[in-house]
Design goal:
globular; 10% helix; 12% strand; little secondary structure
Length: 129
C-alpha cells in the first residue's frame, strides 16, 4: 500500500465505492516521480464495470495479463509509460474501441490485437515499431 500515492489510493477508493465507470490515474508530464505509478495497482483489476482507464504519464513497464478481467473497458490510455510489450490477454477486451499506447517502448504488437473487433482507434506514435 505504501507504494501507492495517497491521491491515487483515494481515487481508487472512490471508484470502488461509487462504482464509477471511469478511473483517471494519469499524471502531468512534469509530475514528481514519487507520484507516478511503477505498476498498475492490483485492486483495479477487480473493477469489472470500468469503461475508461487512464494511466497515462506514469512509469508502468508491464501490462499484466489481469487486464483481461476488465471486460467492459472501452478506452485504455497508457500513453507515456515504459511499456515494452502487450500481453496476448489484451485480446479479451472485446469492447475496447480506443487504445492509447503512444510514447512507450513497444517494438512489436501481439497478433492477438487483431482480434479486437471493436477497436477503431490505436495510437502508437513514439514507439519503436
Amino acid at each position: 500500500m505504501s507504494q501507492i500515492p495517497q491521491r491515487v489510493w483515494e481515487k481508487i477508493q472512490e471508484v470502488k465505492e461509487k462504482r464509477l465507470p471511469k478511473l483517471d490515474l494519469s499524471n502531468d508530464r512534469n509530475a514528481d516521480h514519487k507520484e507516478k505509478l511503477a505498476k498498475i495497482p492490483a485492486e483495479i483489476f477487480d473493477f469489472d464495470w470500468l469503461q475508461v482507464l487512464n494511466l497515462s504519464y506514469n512509469q508502468i513497464s508491464i501490462l499484466p495479463d489481469a487486464i483481461a478481467r476488465l471486460q467492459n473497458l472501452k478506452t485504455l490510455d497508457l500513453r507515456e509509460n515504459q511499456i515494452t510489450r502487450l500481453p496476448d490477454a489484451i485480446a479479451s477486451l472485446q469492447k475496447l474501441t480506443t487504445l492509447y499506447l503512444s510514447g512507450n517502448q513497444i517494438t512489436t504488437l501481439p497478433d492477438a490485437i487483431a482480434s479486437l473487433q471493436k477497436l477503431t482507434t490505436l495510437y502508437l506514435s513514439g514507439n519503436q515499431i
